[in-house]
Amino acid sequence: MMARAMPHASPQNAERPLVLALDLGTSSARAVLYDRQGRLLEGAESRFEYVMTATPDGGVEIEADRLLEILSLVIDELLERARALIPDLASALGGVGGCTFWHSVLGVDDLGRALTPLYNWNDTRSAPDATLLDEKLGRDWLHSRTGCVPHASYYPAKIAWLRRTRPNLASAVNRWVSIGEYFYERLFGRTTCGISMASGTGLFNPNTCTWDEEVLAALEIGPERLSPIAEPRETFSGLNRDYAARWPELAHLPWHPLIGDGAASNTGSGCVMRDAIAINVGTSGAMRVCWKANAVRIPRGLWCYRTDDEYLVMGGALSNGGDVFAWCRKTLRLDADEVEEEDLARLAPDGHGLTILPFFSGERSTGWADYARAAVVGMNLGTQPVDILRASLEAVAYRFAAIYDRLREELPAGARIIASGGGILRSRVWTQMMADVIGLPVIASTAPEASSRGAAIVALKAFGIIPDLDSPPALLGEEFEPDPDAHKRYRRGRARQQRLYELLVAPGPEVLS
């Protein structure tokens, strides 16, 4: 049941045991303490922001040992703060969980040391290789088996790209791993790939919960080149000597394998049933539904991953979300937040005459066009910066509506949207816009950190502390009802965007070259 509850707990009122949750995102790493009700402990969090290296040819990467250092530092800082808040911290803690970005990959040697940088999910250098995989193996075949299409986001294209451009380096790789696997190998001297992270690789079958042998054979990737799949309730414990001395409170606790940040966000938002749709807008964006199922039919245009062996996650993702807002503010030199909100609110829905494709980093769902780029059509001498901002936010909302059109066939009547992420929730105008464009109520999540909260809840379930993912109450705030008149106007705006998409993106990369 969805119910309103307090998102925070004081150290004195927290229900034990506590869970330390790690959240490694695209631009920051966080460490947070939660109680067994999924409430964030006041004052018990730390954060470190960083920037990955972007290359002129579309690369986005970072050294794995740099991320390991960042994760270690946020744990250091969190424990320092927690010791001051909770005198008996060691006995209060029940374990460690965490989440990180899906799809990113690095190659390691036979000792588990990094041979390559971590190539992030939005690294587009492998786009030509994704096209070749599409032609060779067929998009529908790969999608039906793995829930993923040939795309630069996923492992198959990235591995093919490295084999093509740096064959000596690729041939030296012993295993392909995620950053969570790399982190745990450094901490414990062994690693496995959790079901959630495996499901976002493009090499895993979400219906059988195994590496897909036929796909691996077609891609010439031996199963020994990947980590073993973790058992459903598998945990790690016994930190190596250096880390045990550094974090004595964590040395003998169970550590749950890191899960995909999208699965964590759904769980932290309370969207773990079929009638609750999660929208998350951070740097990028996603719309997902998570529910208990052993197997599922995967609709075209959507992906299918897992939270664990019991819960599937289905939906779509946008390469651009909150970063479109940030780009507009920086490039158009807009004023402070409150002025922007007032100006945005004064504009009528789709009243600017603009049509925008918000593909600054290519397209993922629903067309999966790596080569797509942003476009603005319809400007005249009267166009103002706020017009472009409003049209850009509407354009992102239209892309979410396109995902919903594919997803709603899998949903029961009366579904609601729960929104999380600073990209959207800091703008009430944009949140209302989402409701008006999609035509469904949007409820703002009050979870301060949906992803880290979800990682904590998944760990609590894995440790046997709570019975299921819906045990902690959902944290719900303001509800935004759709305006029927605005919805009609936005349908016309969506139709214009679709016509522009068909002109510029659908014919293929040659049109944009």
What does this structure look like?
By secondary structure, the protein is of the alpha+beta class. The protein folds into 2 domains: 20-257, ATPase, nucleotide binding domain (Nucleotidyltransferase, domain 5, 2-Layer Sandwich), CATH 3.30.420; 269-513, ATPase, nucleotide binding domain (Nucleotidyltransferase, domain 5). The protein has helices spanning 64-85, 89-92, 127-137, 139-146, 155-165, 167-172, 179-188, 195-198, 213-219, 241-246, 261-269, 322-331, 337-346, 385-407, 422-425, 428-438, 450-462, 484-504, and strands at residues 8-9, 18-24, 28-34, 40-49, 53-54, 60-62, 93-100, 106-108, 118-119, 175-177, 204-205, 210-211, 259-260, 276-281, 285-292, 303-306, 311-318, 355-357, 375-377, 416-420, 442-445, 476-480. The strands form 6 sheets. The protein has a 7-stranded mixed β-sheet with strand order 16-17-15-14-20-21-22, with helices on both faces. Strands 1-4-3-2-7-13 form a 6-stranded mixed β-sheet. The chain has a 3-stranded antiparallel β-sheet with strand order 5-6-9. It is globular and about 65 Å long. It starts with 7 loop residues before the first strand and ends in a 9-residue tail after the last helix. 54% of the residues are buried.
